[in-house]
């Protein structure tokens, strides 16, 4: 069996998991992210960006609006 060491295990590569992954990269924390789906869904789950997301973008330095 193959084993891997990491500091953080993220379950799910949705917006929450990916946002956390971005923060861990910024802070140099080692992590593994796993996603049960093999591919990106072809159905949209977001057509708009809420105002609160803008605050998050500003705080983490990814604001490009
Ligand atoms: C039709 C629709 C339209 C929407 N429109 C908008 C919009 O316009 N604007 C907006 O801001 N939001 C919108 N939303 C809401 C937005 O999509 C959700 O708030 C967002 O996807 C939640 O992100 P999440 O990462 O918490 O969960 P999810 O997006 O559900 O991601 C969780 C991930 O974890 C994976 N997972 C679950 N269990 C496991 C497991 N045991 N092992 C491995 N992987 C696992 C899942 O496959 C999934 O990829 C919409 C939602 C829907 C359904």
Descriptors for this entry?
65 residues; alpha+beta; two-stranded parallel sheet; 2 strands; 12% strand; binds flavin-adenine dinucleotide
Spans of at least 5 consecutive residues whose pLDDT stays below 50 are none
Helix content range? 25-40%
**Largest sheet features:** 2 strands, parallel
- What small ligands are held by the chains? flavin-adenine dinucleotide
* Oligomer classification: single chain
By DSSP (H or I, 4+ residues per run), the number of helices equals 2
Mean model confidence by pLDDT = 89
Distance linking N and C termini: 46 Å
Cα gyration radius (Å)? 14 Å
What letter string, H or E per element, gives the SSE order?
EHEH
Find the structural class using helix and strand composition: alpha+beta
Q: What spatial order of strands do you see in the largest sheet?
A: 1-2
**Shape estimate:** flat
Find the count of extended strands (DSSP E, 2+ residues).
2
Total number of distinct structural domains: 1
Report the β-strand fraction as a percent range. 5-15%
């Amino acid at each position: 069996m193959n084993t891997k060491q990491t500091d953080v295990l993220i379950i799910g590569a949705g917006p929450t998991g990916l946002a956390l992954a971005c923060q861990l990269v910024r802070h140099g924390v080692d992590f593994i992210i796993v996603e049960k789906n093999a591919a990106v869904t072809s159905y949209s789950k977001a057509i708009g960006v809420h105002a609160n997301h803008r605050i998050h973008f500003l705080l983490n330095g990814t604001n490009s609006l």
